[in-house]
Amino acid sequence: MTTERGGHDEPVGARGPARRIAGHVVLGVLGLFCAFPIYWLYATSLRAPGDVFELSVLPWPLSTGNYTDALGKIDLAGMLLNTGIVAVLSAAGQLLVALLAAYAFAAWSFRFSRLLHLMFVGTWLVPFQVTMLPNYVLLSRLGLLETLAGVIIPTLCSAMGVLLLREHLKGFPKELLDAARMDGRSSWSTLWTVVVPALRPVLAALGILLAITAWNEYFWPAMVLQRSNAVVQLGLRSFLGTEGNEWGPLMATAGLTCLPVFVLYLVLQRHIVNAFVRSGLK
Amino acid sequence: MTGSFVEVPLPSRAGAVAAPAARRSVWSRVRRIAPPYLYLVPAVVLLVVWTYRPLTQTFYLSLHSWNLVPTSPMREAGFGNYVRLLTTPELGESVLRTFVVIAGMLPFTVLIPVVVGLLTRRVRGRAAAVYRALVFAPMLVAPVAGAAVWQWLLDPASGVVNRLLGTELNWINTTGTAQLVIIVITGWHLVGFATLVVSAGLAGINPDYAAAAQVDGASRGQIRRWVTLPLLSPTLAFLILMTVLLSAQWTFPLIDTLTQGGPVGSTTNVYYLLWEYGFRSHDAGLAAAAGVIFFLGFILLAALLAGLADRLSHHDD
Lengths: 282, 317
Prior knowledge:
The structure holds 2 protein chains of 2 kinds. Chain A is mainly alpha-helical. Chain A has helices spanning 17-45, 65-73, 76-107, 113-122, 128-141, 148-152, 159-170, 174-182, 187-198, 200-216, 219-224, 232-239, 247-267, 269-281. In chain A, α2 (65-73) crosses α13 and α3 packs across α10. Chain A is globular. Chain A starts with 16 loop residues before the first helix and ends with a helix. A two-stranded antiparallel ribbon of chain B has the order 1-2.
């Protein structure tokens, strides 16, 4: 929305306050459309159980009744813990695998570099749903169905992560790598003492992005954990779809499901937005 | 692992090399060439095991009939699955619905973001940061949580939408509106992200072009039509390609939690059909055949779009 040098496609003098107000109105409407459902989610969850059907914009009196109700119905704490484990391990694994691969592309020019790079790009064209049956069969042979390992392992190679880090490493000064080599350092120690420290902001942003994606992932856990509902996305599903939903506890569960992500977002807002937009552009 | 960072061609050693020296040179050659491949091993192994192996196996499965039970035999079926698939009316209908979803998503991923991006370039500072946070937030909401809150908003008896409109429509369980609901919720998830991508694209355009056109007496509308939009076209091509390739996948969690493909199949798109064949009817062959056809179809579509985008895009050289 902001540009460093906005409004250059209009003649001088046309930039009145009217156009600025129009900008605020348009953004305000869009912002309302985007944010209202989220606000309503938390507002409903904080109403007293008897007031859930109220239409007042501010929930008053506040009550945590819906939360205690939800916590009593399903093992929400256990699910949140499981989902946290999946998100952290999956993001850490993807980050490490992607870092090693991107380093290979950036630091050496080697014969099959182009072909291997294409292998990563090619994954964009292979939708999950096309590979799901053979992967499901393999997981069942390995005895990993209904386990968290079965959710984590197949996600460990993020082609997006490899390509994003490769783009960033392209701009890395070759002189630094050469200097490290002159010092007699191995490529392994160069990676950890020269490359990783310089790449820390990018790695942090990508790590958060991957963790959020893993936290919100639905399709794959739904397949692997068909019986156990061990992660929050699936636990939430077990509340849904039945006639006569209990909206209060449902909103409380949904609110808790999103809370860790929102907290991360509020703390690290700028980094996350940049990481998302950049990953989209590359 | 002490390889050099740039692979240098092996110096040619004309003829007279003794055998031990040759062995050593093979060893040192391996040591020089190996490092990048070693770093790539984990990623490539994972890619092969979880993406390319299953892809070929899907081709194999599509020629067999199997019910996914490990103990039951897999029988050869030739092209029987493909014939069965192509003769069911479900396939054509689901493809059509997929195109409806894609068309319905384009306003959210292209049209609104461009309009908003162009209109709001002069909003800056703290207000801009607040708007950005607001429009981006849905991207972070888990799809199932999004489904939950929208089901609450659209509840026939006590949902906010019906109470504000004074109606009692059952939006999610009516054939006429179910698809629309899926599209709007998916659009809600993505519109903020697309807007940010467009803003980033607009910010990357060199203002000198517009300034030059302005000196030449071009009006604001002319500059927007003939300078800004063409320079934005690579961004737009990216968004369109993303929408076409991923729309059907994005809708999956919503369909699975809200409508299960219904009512009367009105929200069953290609991926949901695939899922039903595989995990509802346990018809692995049919699901695999559908997977192969959709995979080839999407590749064709992607190639077409990429070619088109390349031809139409103006690059800022």
